[in-house]
Amino acid sequence: MTVLTVREITASDHVEFIRGRRSASFLQTPAWGRVKSEWRRESVGWFRDGELVGAGLVLYRQLPKVRRYLAYLPEGPVLDWSDEDLAAWLTPMAAHLKAQGAFGIRMGPPVVTRRWDTATVKEGIADPAVRRLGDLPPTERSPEGARVVAQLTELGWRPPPEGGGFAAGQPRHVFQVPLAGRSEDDVLAGMNQLWRRNIKKAAKEGVEVSTGTDLEAFHELYVHTAQRDHFTPRPLSYFRTMVDALGAEDPDRIRLWFAHHEGTLVASTIAIRVGTHAWYSYGASSTEKREVRGSNAIQWQMIRDAIAAGADVYDLRGITETLDSDDPHVGLIQFKVGTGGEAVEYVGEWDLPLNRALYAAFDMYMRRRA
């Protein structure tokens, strides 16, 4: 078999490679490197007989006072994870990144291990003996996911340290609504009665959903949401960079949505799409007028837009693994379960220390900052 080689590629070659695939994470697009401006970025490619067969966005986080870096590939790289010889892909990657000054590598293979359908998750939430998703028998187990985990372990990769300062950056568990081969009526019928009722109520109340460009209006409502729900909001400049970078790479990549009721903004969201994968990325809602169900209306319109665009999946992003009814995070899962989708577990993020002393020093530094 021809040996794979890894080298830096241009952003345009990277984008073309992504366009040639049905889907890839938006965190693996060159544009995302522009969003994460505090990191040094590089697009890398895998070549076989001169043909580009894999690509990845690498973000380099510098260790203080020395020119050594943690190389991070969020939800990537984009390669053939079904290959039974992952060493052929990962060994040249590690060599390239080490030559770039990396003391360690972190990546998040976009490979599913388990799925739980809506009915199973609902039963788990209702059962006081069930505390976590992992306590439930999955609806589906992925042989590919199990094989990838086994191979990574054999190759010396390991999950990040528990409670590390640079904790796992991307969610291992997400909630997704399958769209492939389904009509709007199919998806709506799969939602629970409360979701369908709220969508109908929003329409009856006259909630109007549209796309737009008023990022300041989104951010003002987002800050309001952060204060109400007790999380730290990102600054407006972050979203401005995000919209500009992703929009410049592809005009259909990112979209702002707004739900108004009688002229008042009641909900706003940011949607992202790469190929056939559509994401609900950020959301905000007003504390007032919650009874008009703007959040349900805007989600339904985003799902309809994803279906029209030919998306295979609508991804509501991260959920925690908890199913404990006393845990405040369970409310988020209950909201997403109403869409009739499925909880999905990925293999998670994995580390390969290239210099164990520097890797340990970096983790200690990040713990102190946390």
What does this structure look like?
This protein is an alpha+beta fold. Among the domains are: 5-108 and 349-369, Gcn5-related N-acetyltransferase (GNAT) (Aminopeptidase); 180-311, Gcn5-related N-acetyltransferase (GNAT) (Aminopeptidase, 3-Layer(aba) Sandwich). It is 36% helix and 26% strand. The protein contains twelve helices and 15 strands. The strands form two sheets. It has a nine-stranded mixed beta sheet. A six-stranded mixed beta sheet has the order 1-2-3-4-5-15, sandwiched between helices. Helix 3 (87-99) links the parallel strand 4 (69-73) and strand 5 (102-107).
CATH superfamily of the domain at 180-311, please? Answer: Gcn5-related N-acetyltransferase (GNAT)
Trace the largest sheet across and list its strands: 7-6-14-8-13-12-11-10-9
Order of helices and strands: EHHEEEHEEHEHEHHEHHEEEHEHEEH
Instruction: Return the CATH topology of the domain at 180-311.
Output: Aminopeptidase
Give the CA-CA distance, first to last residue. 46 Å
Biggest β-sheet strands, sense, barrel:
9 strands, mixed
Q: Determine the number of helices (DSSP H or I, runs of at least 4 residues).
A: 12
- Strand residue content: 25-35%
CATH class category of the domain at 180-311? Alpha Beta
Q: Segments where pLDDT lies below 50 for 5+ residues?
A: none
Q: Indicate the structural class.
A: alpha+beta
Mean pLDDT across all amino acids: 94
Under the CATH scheme, the architecture of the domain at 180-311 is: 3-Layer(aba) Sandwich
* DSSP strand tally: 15
Query: What gyration radius follows from the Cα positions, in whole Å?
Result: 21 Å
User: What is the 3D form?
Assistant: globular
* Proportion of residues in helical segments: 25-40%
